[in-house]
Amino acid sequence: MHAMQYEITLPADYDMGIIRERVATKGSLLDAWPGLGLKAYCVRERADGSPVNQYSPFYLWRTVEGMNAFLWGQGFRGLCEAFGRPVVQQWTGLAFQRGPASTATRARKVTRPITPEEIPDVVASTRVEDGMHSVALAVDTRGWQLVEFTLYEDNPAAEYSVRHLSAPELDQLPVGRQW
Q: What Pfam families does the annotation carry (predicted)?
């Protein structure tokens, strides 16, 4: 499993209706993408109390081939033409758990420094909660940064709203520890 995210921060006065419309019209294009476990079309809006307007999709890739086909394909090229080429963050998957919730409307991402020695304990302590769709743990070994990405059915404290969820190979993502 590979995790990936890019963040497109938009001006404070940006019409976020443009992003909502983009997701509504283009979101389903990845609903059957080979190699994609899931893509959460995450949005933060100042009108909802966020400090920024931001489009921040988060991906869990089942295969590197699927990820590369996306990054060098027309869909990502179109995003780059519309907003400029974003920095794409990538993490190595550590663990994935599915929760009892069937839908995802909110998301939370937490990053923090971690030592390699802490990883087994952090993975072992990851718990599924009521109202949780799924949770993924991944690490950027370049700076030993852990990312925890959690999708919720409804969690007002989560900082992202999920405008669409593409999950063509969600059931094929390996559950549990990834080593």
A: DUF4865
